[in-house]
Write a structure and sequence with these properties.
The protein has about 260 residues and is mostly helical.
Length: about 260
């Protein structure tokens, strides 16, 4: 009869399981947070519904929802990947959460992977809700889904890089104020609600290079106009993504 081996076998679980467990925790924490829920879901849906269903935006009824839906999708990406992530990570850093996580078997690369998956998971929920509301409002999408996916992924990378840069270099209170200020400013001048051609031509030419404007206009060119490959917006987002992630990797402080 073979003897049972009951000796202890300590050790960390495989890295993918650790990353998924941390991702699940981060997603639940984000969705339970009322302020985060307001930022990521309620404000974009309210803006889409309000400006589509009323004449506040000086466009035709059918044109309003076609114009607004790509912009609100871009706003949702910014709210999660930049504003929400910057504020959440900033306070985790202040209260020593990141330092304590560094003492667990989960490596820093695993924590970054978990935060990335969290952002993507929340963005997927946002997209489902926003697109469902847009369809109820009469939206008729066009274009290549792969181009939309490429724009959303590059936009996420660009906003995540600068969100982590802000969270890893500023005090938590400064991050809270700066992230919300940037959110409001880019909402106003990034082509989300108001067309860029309403601004003076010189100003509009500069605003086109903002990441929110590139993402909104790129999505609009695909979903509203049926463009196959929005090369200009993709290149702008790629530049912001490379710059933001490189700066975050260089200057982010864990403590």
């Amino acid at each position: 009869m073979t003897a049972l081996d009951l000796s202890p076998a300590p050790g960390a679980v495989p890295l993918p399981r650790m990353v998924l467990a941390q991702t699940g925790y981060e997603v639940r924490a984000m969705l339970r947070n009322g302020e985060q829920l307001l930022l990521t879901l309620i404000i974009p849906v309210v803006l889409l519904t309000l400006f589509s269903a009323t004449s506040l935006l000086d466009l035709g009824p059918g044109e309003r929802v076609d114009f607004l839906t790509p912009g609100v999708l871009a706003l949702a990406v910014m709210s999660t990947a930049f504003t929400g992530q910057a504020i959440g990570t900033g306070f985790e850093r202040r209260y020593g959460v990141l330092k304590r996580l560094g003492a667990t078997p989960l490596p820093r690369a695993g924590l970054i992977a978990a935060k990335t998956l969290t952002v993507l998971a929340v963005e997927a929920i946002q997209a489902v809700v926003i697109l469902a509301v847009a369809l109820l409002l009469g939206w008729s999408p066009h274009g290549d889904p792969l181009s939309v996916l490429a724009l959303l992924l590059l936009g996420t990378a660009a906003f995540s890089g600068f969100g982590l840069l802000m969270a890893g270099t500023l005090r938590a209170e400064a991050t809270l104020a700066a992230a919300n200020l940037v959110y409001v400013l880019l909402l106003a001048v990034g082509g989300v609600i108001f067309p860029l051609d309403r601004f003076p031509s010189g100003v509009a030419a500069v605003l086109e290079f903002l990441p929110i404007a590139a993402l909104a206009e790129g999505l609009r060119s695909v979903l509203a106009d049926g463009a196959a490959f929005p090369g200009g917006p993709l290149l702008i987002l790629l530049g912001w993504a490379v710059a933001g992630l490189a700066l975050a990797a260089r200057f982010f402080r864990w403590e």
